[in-house]
Amino acid sequence: MVYSNSLFDSSLLGASAQSSMPPNHIIRPLELTDYRKGYIECLANLTLVGDVTEQMFAESFEDMQRAGCYFVIVIEDLDAAKIVATGTLVVEQKFIRMCGRVGHIEDIVVAKGQQGKRFGFTIIKQLMELATATGCYKSILDCSPDNVPFYEKCGLENKGIQMAAYVPGVPHKL
């Protein structure tokens, strides 16, 4: 189902997350217009993003919207009309666990100068609620060892080691 400007139906978001927002801030699904509100710049606080044009953003947004398994949420500073935090839940359909679903929490970032406002905690909490709402039996998040204490405070537990293989020639480092 296509929700025009929003990546997904905002009714999936719980009211509790909005109640924890400071004045003039809103938590909501990613919108097509967020390119102009600094979404890409916010992501660049996390990792290499590259030169993403507005057209590239729109095409990826529409692909994600059609797939129906991507849930990108943002926190917007309404006074500045800027995205100050974001996170993603990707829902994977499985055959194991009686054809269960697993939520993959990705790309958690709070813009520089916005830390200390509990935005990261709120994003994680909301993504975990989305995972439950979409029928996931578990959620997985990969992080660096430095970030383990933060994610443990958010209710996650260390369950193993991440392995990765990078594709030669594809940029992956800052």
TrEMBL record:
InterPro entries reported in the protein's UniProt record: Acyl_CoA_acyltransferase (IPR016181), GNAT_dom (IPR000182), GNPNAT1-like (IPR039143)
GO biological process: UDP-N-acetylglucosamine biosynthetic process
Subcellular location: Endomembrane system; Endoplasmic reticulum membrane
Primary localization class, coarse: membrane
Keywords for the protein's UniProt record, in alphabetical order: Acyltransferase, Endoplasmic reticulum, Membrane, Transferase
Pathway the protein acts in: Nucleotide-sugar biosynthesis; UDP-N-acetyl-alpha-D-glucosamine biosynthesis; N-acetyl-alpha-D-glucosamine 1-phosphate from alpha-D-glucosamine 6-phosphate (route I): step 1/2
Residues covered by the N-acetyltransferase domain: 30-174
Listed GO MF terms: glucosamine 6-phosphate N-acetyltransferase activity
One GO term describing the cellular component: endoplasmic reticulum membrane
EC number(s) from the headed UniProt entry: 2.3.1.4
Topology of the protein relative to the lipid bilayer: Peripheral membrane protein
Catalytic activity: D-glucosamine 6-phosphate + acetyl-CoA = N-acetyl-D-glucosamine 6-phosphate + CoA + H(+)
SUBUNIT field: Homodimer.
Family: Belongs to the acetyltransferase family. GNA1 subfamily.
PANTHER family: GLUCOSAMINE 6-PHOSPHATE N-ACETYLTRANSFERASE (PTHR13355:SF11)
Name of the protein in its database record: Glucosamine 6-phosphate N-acetyltransferase
